[in-house]
């Protein structure tokens, strides 16, 4: 099995953010490469044949929950060179796109349509006695609002995935006693030096 590598961040542009499919694909691929397959990635860090293959090792099924302990230096290398850079790339994308979502969007292709809908809405006469459905009006959401909702949802997903991944790492690797936020922030500080 080959070892996982960190996913690199894409070129960040407003067009990248507004193409929700492309942004979701990047996040999905990054998560599947590292976090969704964390057990396999951690198992790949174990060097099982240091002393040669022992045929008796296959005679009994290994049922211990945690599996074999992983060398702390190898674990630290995995966290520093694979896990944290992938998390940082995803954080960079979400932070950038959150900034795009809160910025004015003069290139919004639906801006004129929404302005027309808003003007029509102000002129609308609602008489629910004559037409109980007349109050129904579903204004089209600005693409910045849609992007803000997507970023908010993806940040929630990211929190859950990182907590689960960190739990697995804490079980298999000795050393990381802090929570994932502290460990990631510590790594970021080391990167700035």
Automatic annotation (TrEMBL):
It comes from the Eukaryota. This is Caffeine-induced death protein Cid2. Belongs to the MIX23 family. InterPro entries: MIX23 (IPR019171), MIX23_fungal (IPR016805). One of its GO terms (cellular component) is mitochondrial intermembrane space. It comes from Aspergillus glaucus CBS 516.65.
């Amino acid at each position: 099995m080959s070892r996982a590598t960190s996913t690199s961040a894409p070129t960040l542009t407003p067009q990248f953010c507004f193409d929700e499919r492309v942004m979701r694909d990047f996040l999905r691929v990054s998560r599947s490469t590292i976090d969704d397959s964390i057990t396999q990635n951690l198992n790949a860090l174990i060097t099982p044949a240091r002393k040669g293959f022992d045929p008796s090792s296959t005679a009994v099924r290994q049922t211990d929950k945690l599996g074999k302990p992983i060398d702390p230096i190898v674990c630290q290398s995995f966290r520093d060179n694979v896990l944290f850079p992938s998390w940082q790339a995803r954080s960079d994308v979400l932070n950038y796109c959150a900034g795009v979502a809160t910025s004015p969007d003069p290139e919004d292709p639906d801006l004129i349509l929404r302005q027309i809908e808003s003007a029509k809405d102000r002129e609308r006469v609602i008489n629910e006695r004559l037409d109980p459905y007349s109050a129904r009006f579903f204004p089209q959401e600005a693409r910045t609002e849609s992007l803000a909702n997507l970023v908010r949802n993806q940040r929630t997903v990211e929190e859950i995935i990182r907590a689960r991944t960190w739990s697995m790492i804490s079980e298999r690797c000795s050393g990381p006693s802090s929570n994932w936020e502290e460990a990631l922030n510590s790594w970021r500080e080391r990167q700035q030096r």
